[in-house]
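Hi W.,

Here's what went into the run:
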Amino acid sequence: MNIGLLLFIPNRDVENRVLAAVNAAGFDVTQAQARVLMRIDQEGTRLTVLAEAAQVTKQTAGFLVDQLEKAGYVERVPDPADGRARLVKVTAKALGAVPVANEELARIEAEWERHLGKRRMGQLREALEMLGEITDPYR
Amino acid sequence: MNIGLLLFIPNRDVENRVLAAVNAAGFDVTQAQARVLMRIDQEGTRLTVLAEAAQVTKQTAGFLVDQLEKAGYVERVPDPADGRARLVKVTAKALGAVPVANEELARIEAEWERHLGKRRMGQLREALEMLGEITDPYR
DNA sequence: TACTTTAATCAGAGTCTCTGACCAAAAGCA
DNA sequence: TGCTTTTGGTCAGAGACTCTGATTAAAGTA
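Here's what came out:
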């Protein structure tokens, strides 16, 4: 079985479950929106950076941020350091989703660890983190 | 860094690279089409099965198969075992893409192994295969 | 035969994503 | 300074993907 599919299958499982948990808690966001939302940091993040991190075009990122803004999950504020730019910031409303997502993630990781054993789970994480070094275009 | 994102990043890298290689070799398929194409077996596969394996609705699978059929990569033949069903089969034209994809996959795996080392690469594959047992809804 | 399930399609809509063109502010430079 | 290039972001338009709901036809079942 090819390595792409091997990564794809558990990845989708995580995405589906976390999104379902977040939706069930009343946060009405889509997968694409969540992928952008996830990359916004504390101090706010520029659209261009968001686009690069999520690996979509500026237009796509802008489209998703528009929706998130309309729903009240993010806001755009002027970037004090650059008159052209604006910082996308997560609102208090969206922050409520963080613990929900984290709980589901913890649940998933616990299940996986039960199936793989502690040792293999650690190896998996280590290998994936190293892989990020050469496959994450954002770094 | 959450386990979903850790899986997502290298997965996208594989998908992008394999698709780029296949496209560069003159096979004009999209990622979504490729995901369906990948699941069709030698003797042909029913649309319903394809949809389940690729985790999309029958309608979506049908839409993608329509396109693949129009482009000459698959054909639909009656299923001798069931008058309602048809088997989606890969054509000779599409089979030419298989070695192209496999070569790129081998190249990627070699790069990863160079970065992770043989031992960790083996552990990664082992862990992912085990994870498939509990996360692949098609099994 | 009548009822239920299964395989597939049709119709319609919403979502995601892209390319290309454009504007305005910032940065680089003669 | 004034000119050019780069960068951050938006507008417009189109293509691709995916879904829900309804329908047809064949199989399976009581």
